[in-house]
Amino acid sequence: MGFLKIIYAFFCVVFLILFSGCLSSTPSNTYDTEISRNQTETKNYQGVDLTPIDQQQTRDIKGTPNINIESYRLQINGMVENPENFTYEQIKSYPNVSKVIDLNCVEGWSFTAKWTGIPLKTLFNETGVKDNATNVVFYSADGYSTSLKLDYLMDNNIILAYKINDVILPRDRGFPLQLVAESKYGYKWAKWITEIEITNQSYEGYWEKRGYSNSANVSGPSF
Ligand SMILES: Nc1nc2c(c(=O)[nH]1)N[C@H]1C(S)=C(S)[C@@H](COP(=O)(O)O)O[C@H]1N2
Ligand SMILES: [Mo]
């Protein structure tokens, strides 16, 4: 009898460990990918054929960083009046903008997608931007960084995308946010953004430090 009780207790403990493990890992790890799978991808928008997500090429320096969306905050700091941290839900609650834009990597490939997200202008209106600020640096969860001029970002109403082809940005594609740096090479399209710093200094990001052009115009040279 004693032996059977021990066996019984053992299986109860194993079962509890397995079961609680499932419960606790479900929300943060499958949140976006499950939603993405259940959403229908848009194939054509305003007469333009979009590249299906599974046919889009991608590029990253070291794989997909692990981001827990419950604790995720987008920090905006530097030369602002009020530094602020935004949750994913807050970001999605502002009016959104959609654009059909090509992403061109310096490796020679490109694709066309519909990007939906929040204009940087909306966030900068919340934080306020100091008068002499000139540049904006984007820092990502995988250690990547890049920068762009404040005027470029404002004049072109540049957005932070949380959807691609009307599907939640997949985890391996930059979830929760990718910068849609239209008319700039792909290395300016920071993914997995966690921090945005406003400054009056020029800044060389990951690829720029390795010799790539800091202006990165698709129409111009890449070095
Ligand atoms: N955080 C982060 N963002 C990044 C990169 C990266 O390695 N890390 N690679 C850049 C490069 S070189 C390109 S071409 C685009 C590719 O975006 P995609 O994977 O969505 O196609 O992401 C850019 N943004
Ligand atoms: Mo790239």
Automatic annotation (TrEMBL):
Domain of life the protein comes from: Archaea
Position of the signal peptide: none
Oxidoreductase molybdopterin-binding domain ranges (all copies): 63-207
Protein name: Oxidoreductase molybdopterin binding protein
Source organism (scientific name): Methanohalobium evestigatum (strain ATCC BAA-1072 / DSM 3721 / NBRC 107634 / OCM 161 / Z-7303)
Lineage: Archaea, Methanobacteriati, Methanobacteriota, Stenosarchaea group, Methanomicrobia
